[in-house]
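Exercise 7. Given the components listed, write out the predicted structure of the assembled complex. Treat all entries as one system.
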Amino acid sequence: MKNKIIDLIVNSVDALGRDEISDLIEIPPKPELGDFAFPCFRLAKTMHKAPQMIAADIKSAIENSADASFLDEIQVQGAYLNFFIKKDIFVKSMVEAAFDENFGSSDIGKEKTVCIDYSSPNVAKNFHVGHLRTTIIGNSLYKIYSKLGYNVVRINHLGDWGTQFGKLIVAYKAWGNEETVKKDGVAELMKLYVKFHEEAEKNPSLNDEARAWFAKMEQGDEEALKIWQWFKDISLIEYKRTYDLLGMDFDYYLGESFYRDKTDDIVKKISDAGLLKDSEGAKIVDLEEYNMAPCLILKNDGSSIYATRDLAAIFYRKETYNFVKCLYVTGQEQKLHFAQVFKVVELLGNEWAKDALVHIPYGLVSLEGAKLSTRSGNIIYAEDILLEAISKIKEIIEEKNPDLPDKDETAKKIGVGAVLFNDLYNQRIKDVSFKWEKLLNFDGETGPYVQYTYARCASILRKLDNYTPSTDIDYSVLTDPDSMELLKEISRFPKVISDAAEKYEPSVVARFAVDMAQAFNKFYNANRINVDDENLRNSRASLVYITKKTIKDAMLLLGIDCPEQM
RNA sequence: GCAUCAGUAGCUCAGUGGAUAGAGCAAUGGCCUCCGGAGCCAUGUGCGUAGGUUCGAUUCCUAUCUGGUGCACCA
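Answer.
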């Protein structure tokens, strides 16, 4: 529809090109102002005429055109040219588009690969509310990019290498024992880690001991690596339990340790390029010219650091997957780190680094206003959040719909959906203050609200006799304001997906899901679907059908499944 | 100190170089013998401050204030 209008304007205006016109066309804030609008302010300058007059001129030019038959009316309001499309034609085009099985999909990503590095928890540490964000956002970006035809590689870059394992080994040897670790798993490892830091404050030489153990790991020391592998195995079992609950998986679990034999090459590459400098006994790349702190490549004991391994990972991924983009979903506190690493890649002569390497930061999670801190116990675990949400939903189901089959399965979908939605609804960059009260409220702009709307659609369709989804309907009965608003909402879907991808922002999709649910509920309250008039019934049923379908597709992009009943 | 992100309604947040800045939560009142009330409708206050660019700025730029985060051997 928009293209047809662009055609008309292109033929009537010489001053602007097609693309400029396309950018200028907007959807008016109120339906009374038309279906599409073209503001003429921009033209006023080049044409040396008042915008109102320009609008009037274009109007008469278009009205005399034979191609304008799909228009009902054109109005000039101030500098705006408002287009009113013949309602049944408009409805038909929107319904047919939404019926398409691939509505919203695209092939712009065809034969292009995007790597997404997300979740990436630190081994031997608990998977807490903070890790949930990267996991959920990364998973949604995976769905969104897949929908656009990209080949997406999901990489869990486990924090399974580094000095913290030296600390852990020191602590385990000093205060731990095998039985307790076997029994309590990650919780016990966390205790040992905390204990290490307490003791190291009194006795700083412990830090040197820890670094020494890590250096041993890097040199392939058998004892050190055996303990390390054991800790890693224990941790992975717990993480996978959470991923299962979330209904998520990864293509690769390639932690930092995977790159440990690849860091020498990186150091050589940097050195060969003449970028490696000595500084206080360590090796760095000086980035002063770019207004950044130096990027540390090797510590003064010669062992690698996370930047070295991130660099190794970038080159490995570029070679292995030949990505067009590699996305890093981590907290915004790592912004400088990624800026440094990406700059080093670029300085090594890789122009692609500028566009292909993207840090996708998200805001800090705090708990009831205070910082998350394992040591002070101000921490909340991902698994507990999910289980709590599921159990609260179960209570509500028992109360509202005790006869529902598959109550547990449904409660899981809704509970997990509530958590996911809650994390995806606001822009990534916003800091989050975790509050149980907010998470467990399922009214208004929430996952359960959208899922409820979906279940309502499903229920309506179940109760109709003799309805098979079809576009062979009477479009003229769907021209009332509520139906039109709903249809317009639905037809935004493809743009919503491409916007979300472009901005790396799942919240765009989440907002859309709520907008659509609201538009549907409004329609539902104003119009009865199961009416005697077969013509009307089938037409409205088709509208319900595409609403249901689009809600489901939108929620799937967030990683959320919609139950048919709840 | 330097860098960076954010400041919109009591709270949590959308939003756009343009038409009267929107939702939800919380509060109060209401909703059809009928398709699912986790729903729908109604009721109020607001773009941190000061300049600049522009026909037009809440949006872009500069300064400033407030808050968050980062600034080498942790990741």
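Discussion: The mean pLDDT of chain A is 92. Residues 457 and 544 of chain A are 6 Å apart (CA to CA).
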